[in-house]
Amino acid sequence: MENPTCTTDIESPTSKEIKSLRILCFGDSLTAGYSSWGYSHYPYAAQIREELRKAFPATEAHVVVSEEVWAVALATGANVLALSVLEAQHTVGDVVQRRNDLNEMIAQHSDDRWHYMDLRAAVPYFDMSDFLRERIWDDGLHLTMAGYEMMGQAIAAKLIELLQVSEKPVHTDGKTV
């Protein structure tokens, strides 16, 4: 699947003008929006772009989906919002402990431009009603379109929070503030 690029001309509600945002979403099948056993793809990046457009209507936003590693982003001077790994239906062997250990490592990582979001809390698997689980989760690992929208809204809310409280430029290339 080709990596989709979302571009939108989006007026900052704050006194600090944000002229341009560049958001890189990197990961695996969840980032690509894999659903319906691969017959459908709905990347949550589309929902992030929509929420940012609402929050910052005069800002040009670029949201790109990639499978690059986060170290590349940090090496370029960008900020990183790292997400925890979601729960999944299957709990075979030591999968749950390994996922919890990985999430702990992500949460404990420290860098000046590193930010963390517990995505498990925003899009839980086990801690929701059966009705909502049926609507949000596709195959026990991937999400439905509604699930990816939920994920995109949660991530966008965190990005908006970080952008509104940040006094430092997001990037120092003169293009993104």
* Terminus-to-terminus distance: 31 Å
Helix content: 25-40%
Largest sheet: 3 strands, mixed
Q: What shape does the CA trace take? A: globular
Sketch the topology as an H/E string, one letter per element: EEHEEHEHEHEHHH
Stretches with pLDDT under 50, minimum 5 residues: 1-15, 169-177
Strand order of the largest sheet: 1-5-2
Class by alpha and beta content: alpha/beta
Percent strand? 15-25%
Secondary structure tally: strands: 7
Radius of gyration: 16 Å
How many separate helices? 7
Whole-number average pLDDT? 80
Main attributes of the structure:
disordered N terminus; about 180 residues; disordered C terminus; three-stranded mixed beta sheet; alpha/beta
Account of the 3D structure:
It is a single chain. With about 180 residues, this protein is an alpha/beta fold. Helix content is about 40%, strand content about 20%. The protein is built from seven helices and seven strands; from the N terminus they run ββαββαβαβαβααα. The protein has helices at about 30, 45-55, 70-75, 95-110, 120, 130-135, 145-165, and strands at about 5-10, 20-25, 35, 40, 60-65, 80-85, 115. Strands 1-5-2 form a three-stranded mixed beta sheet, with helices on one face. A two-stranded antiparallel sheet has the order 3-4. Strands 6-7 form a two-stranded parallel ribbon. Helix 4 links the parallel strand 6 (about 80-85) and strand 7. Helix 2 (about 45-55) packs across helix 7. The longest helix has 21 residues, at about 145-165. The radius of gyration is 16 Å and the shape is globular. The model is unreliable at about 1-15 and about 170-175 (pLDDT under 50).
